[in-house]
Amino acid sequence: MNPHHHSSYLNPNSLKSRFTKNFLRSLIKINKQTPFPCRPTEMFQRCHKVKTAADKSLACAVGSRRVWSRAMLCKIRNRALRRGPQKPPSVRRIIINNRTMKKGFNCLKEKMNDDQEAGIDQTSKLRKLVPGGEAMDLCNLLDEAAHYIKCLNTQVQVMRSIADFYST
Amino acid sequence: MEMGDKDKFELEKRSDNHINYHSPDSMPSDWRYSSANVANSSLGLVSTDNQMPVCRGDLVGVSSCSSASMVDSFSPGQWDHPTNSQNLGFCDISVQNNASTSNPMGIRKGGPASLRTGLDKTLDIGWNPPSSMLKGGIFLPTAPGVLPQSLSQFPEDSAFIERAARFSYFNGGNFSDMVNPFGIPESMDLYSKGGGMMQGPQEVFPGSGLKSLSVVQGQKNVMNMGDSSRDTSLSVEHVAIEGSPLKNEKKNGSLVRSHDEAKQGVGGSGNESEEAEFSGGGRQDKPSKLEGNGGELSAKSPASKKRKRNGQDADLDQAKGTQQSVEAAKDNPEVQQKGDENPTSTPIKATGKQCKLGSQASDPPKEEYIHVRARRGQATNSHSLAERVRREKISERMKFLQDLVPGCSKVTGKAVMLDEIINYVQSLQRQVEFLSMKLATVNPRLDFNTEGLLAKDILHSRAVSSSTLAFSAEVPMVYPPFNASQPGFIQASFPGMESHSDMLRRAINSQLTPMTGGFKETTQLPNAWDDELHNVVQMGYVTCAPQDSQDINGSLPPGHMKAEL
Description:
The complex is a heterodimer of chains A (about 170) and B (about 575).
Chain A: H1 3-9, H2 15-33, H3 40-62, H4 67-83, H5 89-118, H6 120-129, H7 138-167
Helix pairs in contact in A: 2-3, 2-7, 3-4, 3-7, 4-5, 5-6
Chain B: H1 2-16, H2 26-44, H3 51-54, H4 56-61, H5 64-73, H6 82-100, H7 110-126, H8 128-136, H9 148-153, H10 157-168, H11 175-182, H12 187-190, H13 192-208, H14 211-224, H15 228-243, H16 253-264, H17 269-282, H18 287-293, H19 296-311, H20 313-316, H21 321-341, H22 345-354, H23 382-404, H24 414-441, H25 451-460, H26 474-478, H27 486-492, H28 500-512, H29 524-544, H30 546-555
Helix pairs in contact in B: 1-7, 2-7, 5-6, 5-7, 5-8, 6-7, 6-10, 6-14, 6-15, 6-19, 7-8, 10-11, 10-14, 10-15, 10-19, 13-14, 13-15, 13-17, 13-22, 14-15, 14-16, 14-17, 14-19, 14-21, 15-19, 16-17, 16-19, 16-21, 22-23, 23-24, 24-29, 28-29, 29-30
């Protein structure tokens, strides 16, 4: 990129920069916490940690504005709770379920229409792919999917450049 | 005088307040403010561009006072004069709005108020007599020559129209663009009613940047709204259209015609697109005048023209859709009533309808009631209308997604499109997994660099320093178990990048077996690690050689290298 691009890309508040900051911080933290894995299992664990860190930093960068970011954060926290201290996982899960159920009743009818309109398989697949997509009607689901795709693109871009940077 | 007019406006507004009118008190004030500005501009402060932005809402708010006079002056002949038309447009809009004033327009926020105030001012300047007419609600042109001067003074109609048009875009699809410059985001609410109709212009705007389009639509809307409520909604839409940035060429009858055609479709994006094209063609009249104002005025002129037509249905009915629009307009009260009765379902859906373009702009202000107009020849059942709104919302989102997902421009149909979207999301997620795995293997180096440096580099996404083939240094890091034999092996396999993966795979596998001592699960290791190492090694090589990396990276998305985690 030419220098001109450099200056024009520096937006400290953009999603990209926020995500990069968060992600780098968590990567460094992971590096410090665990020694470089020698065994494959350790490598797997580390891999998973990095992926979780990436997802979490992306969701944090997006904030609570979006349903999918909130759902993703809840999922990560639930997982942490489950694996960490032996807190009753049911508590948190119930919270999420309630939220889903409340919306579910309202959306049930719309979901049925959505399925008819767009194909049951596809809508359900999309719901599974987009975090938090289970409790949304098609219209919002598409909205969230669009924003999610945009953020995923950013995430892939940043991660790729980090990986490239560190591989050279 | 201004105050008097304002008061009138307020009274009118309040009297007509419907449930849609949320904050009558707040609105008048806003209206007053904005309308005052508008009035000033319209009255002849043509040169004052600054006023225009503020006056966006004025268009809507322009109560009958000024509109009446304006309407009168907006005889068809006047449209021929660019300046006049501009002014007229403005007046028309305001007049229409005021005439019908009933708040059925659903002008929620200060839009109408602003318009009114603006109109008040404008009226003050030249139209004292008409005010009386307005009061009576007689907006039909009584004396064509009443306001020739004032009309000519009308501020840049383009700017005005633009504002008006913008107002109609309450869904804020592209409204945000329109509204923000003017600083009257609330005005969007006002036009919720007309929102359906205005959606088209919004779409058109980004595409064609045609301000006139919106104006045209606004005008049409204005015209078609025979009823007061309709007029208000129309005016709202009209204003919105005007508000949108239009280049403002001449907005003459052509615009009006296009308006009429557009009018027919309630919130039909198709209509709007028609109008857009139509108006685009028709706007060439006042380039000089409108340019200055950023097209605001031009927006106004078409709007005004539309209003005029409303007043003079017979004369204006040049466009094909006039009659239809009128009929459609007739359905509106029905729809609106139904909308009122079904506040939960219809308004919400209608809101979505208006937000058709919302995906591209800021979220529209929360509106509870959206009046959807039934299209000609379509059922006016509230359920079917809501259904239609919903469907249009969904199709709008699908279009947006089509732009996001690469290679989907030619895909038609929801099912295929959804398939593509699903595949794309899956591939992106797999890429993230793979990259995280890659990062996990090359992590150690992060400690050495400062975060800021990294962030800077990464944000700028520099090209990978391809030339460094000093990969051997990396190898030990990536493959700690293979320190001994790797460097030589890897460098040997550099030349043939494409076949690297296979060669490396075999090499690694072969190496794995002798090195089982280092792994507890020797037998399972090769199988488990095969793909990962394969991918990682490939990626490692890829990063060394930029050309190759690009190739391989390019091939990644298709998903052939997704690590089997």
